Amino acid sequence: ARGLVWLRSDLRLHDNTALHRAAKGCRELAAIFIACPKTWRDHEEGEPLVSFRMACLRELQEEMGKRNIPLYFLELGEFSQVPAALRQIAEKLSIDAVYANAEYPLDEQRRDRAVRESLREIDVPVEYATDRTLVPPGSIRTGSGEAYKVFTPFKRAFISQYGGDSYQPLPAPHSRKDNGDWPAWIEVQGPNNLVQTVPDSLAGYELSAERGGTVLGWQPGERAAARRLDEFSEIIDGYEDERDFPAIDATSRLSPYLNSGAISVRQCAHMALEHNNDRWSGGSDGIACWLGELIWREFYTHLMDAYPRLCMHKPFKPETERVPWSGDELAFRRWTLGKTGVPIVDAAMRQLEQTGWMHNRLRMVVASFLTKNLLIDWRWGERHFMNNLVDADFASNNGGWQWAASTGTDAVPYFRVFNPYSQSKKFDPRGDFIRRFVPELRGVRGDDIHCPPDTPDYPRPICDVKETRKRAIEAFAQLKG
Ligand code: FAD
Predict the structure, then answer these.
(1) Pairing relation of β-strands 126-129 and 210-211?
(2) CATH code reported for the domain at 318-480
(3) pTM higher than 0.90, yes or no?
(4) What region holds the Photolyase/cryptochrome alpha/beta domain (predicted)?
(5) How many CB atoms are closer than 10 A to CB 210?
(6) CATH architecture of 2-130
(7) Is residue 405 helix, strand or coil?
(8) CA of 88 relative to ligand 1 center, distance in Å
(9) How much is the ipTM here?
């Protein structure tokens, strides 16, 4: 049989369910990646994310080449063009079956159903495997058969149902001596042909973030991901104690790799379980805490799958649609530029701009500052993150924003507003992180770093955090009435 693996957000050879199944089931094997830059733009996927994805793809193509498995590339505009294109390709390449790993955002699910329909007409089956999450969304239900809306019971149910070590990673496909004949390129209806090279730019994306093979300092690909996982395994025991301090490199920084699929969540869980006698709770506090974060990722993806309205720019709590958001574009711009005059917020926003990543504690701090102190719609912040994060992931980002804005399920209660100055003192006590990213404040000494006196070149605070906190609490309290 001739199999085609359709790669999407699973850009790796090892532990790739679809690829593994295709390699086992088919004598002849090729892979394809279809870029849809117009849809990606509609989904607010920014230059950092797309550059990193394409860099990972380029590396994977090389690795597959070494194993004599061709990886084709096709650039279309939108998801809606995929079903017809894949059908043409399957016909021209005489494909018997298509293998892919399931994706869960709404438009991706619709695309995948349309592809299945379109290929059914030519009798080519498509198999979508569970791979992006540890267990299939929809498989963890409450006693009454509903999806969990609250994290802690979800986590408990996850551990009791799936808490063993059944997360043994799958091997990479072997090198193929005889892999049949695959043409170097084929003509496909539309502006672009199917080729075997990954281009340096896409319509609307320059992929310019790339310097010296890295994207904003991130080394792309599966090997870099495996190295990072290995390095992190040395310090994972200290994770619980140190993960909240942005000046310390104590978290895994695997999120860009997880989201492009250069590493799987199973490989991550497997590493942690191996170091914790296969236990999800108990044992090393650091490891149990980190496994808990993988479950948070799982939770938000399952939630998005169960509540499609989350993919339609809707808050989880409908009444929060009535929050009187301020619409202050100038304030929003100052927030994006890291010029709010609140040092910890500005340092965080500049970390995002310069590295395409932000520490989790600071994601909570800047999201709270934007939505509560500046009373700006969480969707503005969500969009800015999608556009600028190298690890942008719809489910986790939407979940994080709705958590911070108190519009989500199991969100922070609206009356508990983070004070950015207290957060700064607590989690960046010496101001090391602030000084790293806000050079204007390098000369400020001692505790003044958190709330500096007038400093040349540095703005005065954009708002009074106490007054704006009160304003936000009142705005949310009124929704009840
Ligand atoms: P680690 O601390 O090492 O955790 C390991 C992995 O667990 C992460 O890589 C991630 O996959 C998962 N994880 C950890 N925390 C969370 C969480 N709160 N929710 C879901 N998964 C989690 N994460 C993204 O991957 N993409 C996003 O676009 C994203 N946007 C966010 C927006 C906001 C407002 C907030 C508050 C959080 C967001 N997060 C997002 C979650 C979290 O901040 C990042 O996953 C984490 O900072 C990534 O760094 P790390 O890999 O070192 O994490």
Answers:
(1) unpaired
(2) 1.10.579.10
(3) yes
(4) 1-134
(5) 18
(6) 3-Layer(aba) Sandwich (3.40)
(7) coil
(8) 39
(9) 0.99
